[in-house]
Each structure stands twice: as structure tokens, then as C-alpha cells.
Amino acid sequence: MKDQLNKQFRFSVTALLMLAVISLGSGCSPSEEETAAQNQAIAEKAVEEAKKQILAEQAAEKERQEAALAAEMEEKMRKEEAVAAAKAELIAEQRAAAAKAKAKAIAKAKAEAKAQAEKAVSAPPPPPPVRKTVCTTCGVVVAVNAVEVEGKGSGLGVVAGGAAGGLLGNQVGQGTGRDVATIIGVIGGAIAGNKIEKKSKKVTEYDIVINMETGEQLVVHQAEAPDLVAGDKVRIENDMVIKK
User: Fold this and answer.
1) What pLDDT, in 10s, does the model give residues 138-160?
2) Where are the domains of the chain?
């Protein structure tokens, strides 16, 4: 806009200068009315020319702006098309890479499956499981416990105890009471004599605790002292514990 005003000002100045030259170059002295008319005509002509020039420049400026806008839009569209083409190319490359990786993975899986199948066919079958034979009479000693056992009465203790008890009972009371006391003394003495005889004949025997291979625990009683300790492996034969 500022450039257009400057141009209009220059055209006005040019018109005035033309008017002055015409006035000075005239040989006769025109009347004031003629001079005013001439000046008016020149001024109007100068203004008209200035308007035409301004309109032409405005049209040219508009055309230039439209051309610049069209070029800018074209450049923008070209860039957008280039970006879209680059994106499409990148997506295509990514899809191709994914397809290639998938195909490679499938080929690898097939190769591994084939190798395993060939290995399974060529490998001999596994041997049958070995069954462990369980010894039903074998085991391990857990403990050897000494046990005191009373001896067997021979009858002498009963006889001696009964006699002693009867003698003591006979000394209690008189008449029938003495007879009852004698009988009670005989019975009590016999029982006590039998107990005393058994205790005097008591012996030490042994209980051997064994964990059998069958999973059960067995206790074997022996009269003789075994030459065994906990942890010994043994077997049982004829109710006797024998060290392996």
C-alpha cells in the first residue's frame, strides 16, 4: 500500500511538471480562463494516467501474489506427496521385513521339528525300568534292647513258701481261727515262694528292632546276646537274626 501511494505521488508531481513546461513554452500569453482550462485538462489527464498505472500495478501485484500462492500450494502438495510416499515405502519395508522374519522363524521351527523327528526315529528305545528285588527277610538293625526275664518256677519255691507260710499262720490265734490263718499262710507263702524263686532265676534276653526292606518294623526276641549294633544289615533265618 505504501508503494502504491509513493507511485501516485510521483505521477502527480510528473503531471504538475508537465503543466509548468507547457505554460512556459507557450509563445502567447493566454488568458487566465484558458490557462485554468488547460491546467485542468492536463491535471485530469495526469490523474487518469496515474489511476491506470496504479490499477495496472495492482493487477500485476495481485497476479504475482496469486502465482506465489499457487507455487506455495504446489510445493506444499509436493512435500505432502513425498512424505506420504516415504511413509508408504517405510510401511512396505517393515511388512517385508516382518514377512521375512516370520518365514525364517517358520523354516527354523520346521527344521528343528524335522531334526527331532529324525532323532526320535534313529534313537533306540529306552531300556525297561529295572525292578529292584525286595528281600522279605532282610533289613537294617535299628536298636538292640536288653530285657530282664523272670525264670521259671520249679515248685520248690511253692513248697518252701507254703510250708513257711503255714508255720507262721499256725502261730496265729486258736482253734478255727488258727486253722484259717494256717491255710492263708500256706497259700500266701506258696505264692511268695514262687515269686522269690522266679526272681532268683531271672535272666537277661534281647529284643532286636529291625527295619525290614518291605517297609515294616520287626522285633525279634533272642535269649543269646547278639553281636549286632544299630546300622548292621541282617537277615532272619529260623527266627534268628544273622548279620550279612
Assistant:
1) 999 999 998 877 655 455 444 45
2) 2-79, 138-243
